[in-house]
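Question (not urgent): is this output format expected?
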Amino acid sequence: MSKTADYIGEAAADSTNALNPLLGGLNRQELLGSVAMMLRRTSVSPVANAKFASKMAKESYDIVMGKSERAPGRKDKRFKDPAWANNPFYKRGMQTYLAMQEHLDDWVGDLKLGDMEHARAAFVMNMITDAISPTNAFITNPAAKKRAIDSGGQSLIKGLQNAYEDMTKNGGMPSRVDKSPFAIGENVAITPGKVVWKNEMMELIQYTPVTDEVREIPFLNIPPQINKYYASDLDPITSIVQFLLKQGFQTFIISWRNPTKDHADWGMSEYVDSLIQCTEVIKEITGSDKVNVSGACSGGITTATFASLLAAAGDDRINSLTFQVCVLDPETDDSELSAMASERSLEIARRYSRRKGILKGDDLARMFAWMRPNDLIWNYVVNNYLMGEDPPPYNVLFWNDDSTNLPAQLHSDYLDFGLTKPFTNPGEVEIAGHVADLTKVDVDLFIVAGVTDHITPWKAAYRTTGLFGSKNIEFTLSNSGHIQSLLNPPGNPKAKYFRNPSIEPTADEWAAGAEEVAGSWWTRWAEWLHERSGDMKTAPAQDGSEQFPPLYDAPGKYVFD
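Got this back:
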């Protein structure tokens, strides 16, 4: 993999498709309305306009005279070619662009707008200024010109081929990953196991033990409905599943079915009902009355709903809970999407998915791409089309592009979750056939978040510590972003995490007392799970049981939908 491909692969890895409770709550009409609103404000904001013009005039003079010291930020990889620093023509073009980008952002900030209007205006302006970067056009990209000369024009021909492939086979979006090296069940999701139970909505996979003895209390991983489950089993090095097996845990995971419009009525109630059924199966197979449960991202919302329902019914089958990069207490300032969504836009999104029966995974991928256009669109335009390179073969992006649909009812339930905040208002909001109240859930909690996660920000994830009735809670902060913070195995030289045994009133107070720990948080989590998984016993000779015999091999069939 080239350095360019390596960079864009890593940059995109933490910009994966993940479910925000307000997902789909932003539409094209409202973004176009933001453009119209900014144009109207231009005519009634003489002070802001004059301030922008004055700044640009002064800096343009300094740039032309070679006096400007403006340079790209340390994390801005667009201008890394030496020509941007050494060639006067390119350097001045870059400085003019960066100045305009900054001053336009300031201009939007000076407009007299409401909070939501300002968030939308800033979002649209960033999309515009990102799009007109000189690196995005062949004529103003020195690296692309040099590549064309060095390759005898072959890079341009390859770039046209890549563009044609994307137009005809990728919905017009630039490809982010070379999928050809990967095959599910062959070099991705290869951990041995069996599907031991299934219904129309899920397959339950039991993984074959690799140790002579296993812990008595089994472990169940509940993945998000918006992604395939095998993020937990990408390859032997980053596989959480294989790590748990080597630690002696009886490990189960759910593979959700990719819904079609025929499954439009699948909502949170139906998903929780399936969790009740599958945990009954796990209890029978393992002989344990208890199950340790983990939920990641939007799967954590489902997990919390499941736990709340069981607590309301007096059912104590859950022994402990783990939440990974999950926000259960959403606030409008948690993300750009939350800040821009209105009740009207949410209702438009709700009606859209009801009309279609599903919210398509491809549509979600496009929305997330435009939330991070430099990382998820323009990087690939430059790499694939201007430079004529193939996108990187990266298993995380292969998994991320293997997107799934969201049933209309579940989408509606998630929109309601963002509006009514059932876990923040215990005993007041009905969800999945009961009145939610996490204060009645008193099992031990382990919560992990990512320090650079922009999808489920860690301070938002920290608020989960105040929602439950649990007396024993551990919060751990991994050193990376949304997905890389989870795929962070022991042996990774860059791995570290932050730990504070005390749960403080706020995230900032917790961070002030946290210590940096070298290594993977997986090791600490395994210690925590061992303490809550009972005694060791002889590993079962085979997967399943007499009542629930194995149906077929992992990774199952639903993963291919």
